[in-house]
Give the backbone structure.
Amino acid sequence: AQKITQTQPGMFVQEKEAVTLDCTYDTSDPSYGLFWYKQPSSGEMIFLIYQGSYDQQNATEGRYSLNFQKARKSANLVISASQLGDSAMYFCAMREGQADSGGGADGLTFGKGTHLIIQP
Amino acid sequence: DGGITQSPKYLFRKEGQNVTLSCEQNLNHDAMYWYRQDPGQGLRLIYYSQIVNDFQKGDIAEGYSVSREKKESFPLTVTSAQKNPTAFYLCASGGGTDTQYFGPGTRLTVL
């Protein structure tokens, strides 16, 4: 079974509208972290937002927020007031197990991504 | 400026040749990672290192090798044993927190 599922291969959204990108995850570990990355056509992976499994509140970073529904194992990314520059691939990723605070965590497991296109 | 550099940006290899991809970071991070990305796919973990002189296999380590002699450097060698090496390779680092930060990537093509 896939550990990270992104069900939207592609999305078209009008500029200035809000966007929700779906992500569901599968883990039996009580401690985990969830991430969203943006990948423009240049290929670099840009970190957007992080949610820890024990965090009580949904994470927010500027126009990005993470709708974390633990019981449903869902971690959807919400982009408010979309801009043309938001057009890119978006990846959801998960780290399982407790992060090693001294040396960083084990590797991340990524979903297959959603290709978001913002139309003027 | 602090960051992660990868070189070269593009790399062409003949079948049967080993090639080494460079990854350097000046973020003082203890952990470093190598991922592979195929077209239309997410990233898959090749190797990672949480401390100098130590590294672990990821999900797709076969045909690859790494070394971690310095904190700042984590080179990846793609050996001739890797049957399908054409891909986009991304290096990342992390330390103290969960978040991994990525370099710009190397695009490897086998001729």
Q: What stands out?
A: The two ends of chain B are 35 Å apart (CA to CA). The longest strand of chain B covers residues 43-51. The mean pLDDT of chain B is 93.
